[in-house]
Amino acid sequence: MPIPSPVTASETRCAGLGQGAVLGRAQGGAGLVEVLVAVLVLSIGLLGIALVQSRSLSSNNSSMTRSMAVAASYSILDSMRADRAQAVLGAYNHDNTAPLKANDCPAAGSSLASRQLNLWCSNELAARLGESAEAEIVCDAQGVCTVTITFFTLDCGRAGDGQTNDALCTQTLSEGRGQRIFTQAML
Which chain regions cross the lipid bilayer (predicted)? Predict the structure, then answer.
């Protein structure tokens, strides 16, 4: 009996598949479609990571601004404790009919209260919370004072920083762009 010669893949034809169909031929690499799908999945994942990072930075900025607002409220309360007699008489009061506006700080007059309000407004409100920040201070005769600070975060930024759109800074608190903190203390 004769020994059959080895059959190569190119010689093996599959019946019924027509000429040129070869059995046993392995795929020689990833196809273009598989590469495109892998790139698409990877790019969607990277976009997700970028979105999470962006949200994290936004939350951190908002948290930092709230912390600065709380520190500002404690600062004016400490100043009022140093001048308690005038504070309980209402020298520091600025209610919602005439709030302190960071872009329109009161003039520093001859009284300690007016000088402290001027310094606090320009150094705490305007410098740290932006020109759109506002504050209301109400003290009663018993020395219970409430400081309310309204400020705008990330969408507005700080006025004059060159990186914000001033049109965004006109948003109101009711439109969901601003934040408000309340601090109440006994002098």
Answer: 32-52
Contact 163, 183 (CB under 8 A): no
Indicate whether 15 belongs to any domain. Answer: no
Residue 102 structural domain: 32-186
Number of domains in the chain: 1
Selection from 126, 104, 129, 108 nearest residue 117 by Cα:
108
**CB proximity list for 131: less than 8 A, separation 6 or greater:** 102, 103, 158, 159, 160, 169
Residue 86's pLDDT is 94
In this structure, the chain runs to a length of 187
Q: Which of 185, 151, 4, 123 is nearest to 64 (CA)?
A: 151
Q: What is the pLDDT of residues 84-131, one digit of tens each?
A: 999 999 999 998 788 889 988 888 889 999 999 999 999 999 999 988
- Measured CA angle at 149 (ends 144, 152), to 5 deg: 170
- Whether 57 is covered by a domain: the verdict is yes
